[in-house]
Design a protein that fits this description.
Layout (H helix, E strand, L loop, with lengths): L9 H10 L10 H24 L3 E8 L5 H9 L7 E4 L6 H4 L5 H4 L7 E6 L8 H4 L5 H20 L2 E9 L2 H13 L9 H8 L1 H15 L6 E5 L3 H15 L37
Parallel strand pairs: 1-3, 1-4, 2-3, 4-5
Helix pairs in contact: 2-11, 3-11
């Protein structure tokens, strides 16, 4: 006589599900995401203090498919940080003069001084991606980049710069969804450029270019780290968590701050408030 299987409680079922590693993780709730992000941003503030005090020089590159979420991660990293220490570099199309310079020259001017962290929202890897695929550079220029880039990055590392490179990877289906979202939402429409549409049409060409780029530039001194970006929330948390793990730091307790007493307004008469132009209080 077979024994009846004991029916699992909802609590037990949840526990079993949580301990398992399914192919597709359960959606991260907004509250879980917000709290996890808050804790990570506290750590970023500690890291910022450490970089400033120890005079470190940090460069972080963010590359990947269009609509992969690079800008969203950068925004969350910088949200609580001092823009004088943590700076974002997002260069536009090179000028006619810059086109005649040594390719890496305009990027070099944005490298960090001691005590700074620079985040490149796209970087010198434009030559291996969009410039190569769209024909904005010659085949010889592309080949020269693949030869020069590893040496350039080794020079940066030898000079004392901590170089971290992230590639944001998304599926064809998710990119389609995000492009459609940008088309429908007027507040996001500016994110969708003609070049983004071209990248969609040349999906396979970009894939091939990325494979060639990795083969030449995934070096020991500055390896590529791939971020699974199909899930925006998880991608942001995972990337920030990894960034924190890449730079050993300690919590430097802030100095005790005491507010001084406010100056007494002896002999000061404030002008009539009616003489000032206040903005309309619509809300």
């Amino acid at each position: 006589m077979s024994k009846k299987k004991k029916k699992k409680s909802k609590k037990e079922e949840k526990l079993i599900y949580s301990d398992a590693k399914p192919n597709k993780k359960a959606k991260l709730s907004k509250s879980e995401y917000t709290e996890s992000l808050r804790l990570l941003q506290v750590e970023l503030v500690k890291l910022q203090k450490w970089i400033s005090n120890k005079k470190l020089k940090v460069v972080v590159l963010f590359e990947g498919r269009d609509a992969a979420g690079k800008g969203g991660v950068i925004k969350r990293i910088t949200q609580r940080l001092n823009p004088r220490i943590c700076k974002v570099v997002a260069l536009t199309t090179p000028t006619e003069r810059e086109k005649t310079q040594w390719y890496f020259q305009r990027y070099v001017s944005h490298l960090p001084a001691a005590g700074e962290m620079i985040l490149f929202d796209r970087s010198w890897y434009n030559r291996a991606g969009v410039e190569h695929v769209m024909g904005f550079c010659t085949e010889e220029e592309h080949k020269e980049f693949l030869r020069s880039c590893p040496e350039f990055e080794r020079m940066l590392v030898r000079s004392g710069i901590k170089l971290i490179k992230y590639w944001f990877s998304i599926s064809d289906e998710v990119q389609e969804e995000r492009f459609q979202s940008r088309i429908k939402d007027r507040t996001k429409r500016w994110k969708l450029s003609d070049m983004d549409l071209e990248s969609r049409a040349k999906w396979v060409d970009y894939s091939k270019a990325k494979d060639v780029m990795f083969a030449h530039t995934d070096i020991k001194q500055a390896p590529w780290y791939v971020v699974n970006a199909d899930d925006k929330r998880r991608a942001r948390l995972n990337c920030i968590n990894h960034l924190l793990s890449m730079i050993p730091y300690e919590d430097i307790p802030p100095e005790k701050i005491e507010l001084p007493p406010r100056q007494r307004k002896v002999g000061y008469v404030r002008p009539p408030i009616e003489d000032q132009n206040f903005i309309p209080e619509v809300f």
